[in-house]
Amino acid sequence: MFSDRFDQLVQALRILPSVGPKSAQRMALHLIMKNREGAIGLAHALTEATDHIHECSICHSLTEDEVCNICTSLERDDELLCVVESPADVMAIEQSGSFRGKYHVLGGHLSPLDGIGPEEIGIPYLLQRLSQGQIKEVILATNATVEGQATAHYLVEASKHLPVQMTRIAQGVPQGGELEYVDSHTLSQAVHNRMRIK
To answer: Zinc fingers (C4-type) at which residues (predicted)?
Structure first.
């Protein structure tokens, strides 16, 4: 619209999730018109991040080192492994402060229709990691989607021959949620996975 460079900026911003053409245009205008210093800082931060952040060689989460600080921590439980779909899931669990084990990031979930099988998300490497004998329990924390459930089921079946306890994160009614607003699948999971209190 204004120039080729402006159009390039708009197109570059559109790679972000949930950013359509109008949102990208508003962001570009804001950066150019109202916050050039912020735009320069953003460009620098993006360059630094893409140059220095990569996958941990053990868990496949994000790190600037060969091995992330969670994998190298002596204060974490080496016998407890939480399997998640993405580094964002690691961040969410870490923010809860409820887990002191280690992680394995799949980098996605099984989706045969999209050509994503066990090899594409590194399941053979995970099974190899489990076969080393150090890990005693695996918490499957894949998403509560059809693909996430299928991935969890596949992992349970694929690890049956290993001496590892497999558990699944609880699913059901959220804290503070009212039953009338909870979808039927979530309610079904909550009833099925109910816990004894007396």
So the answer is: 56-71
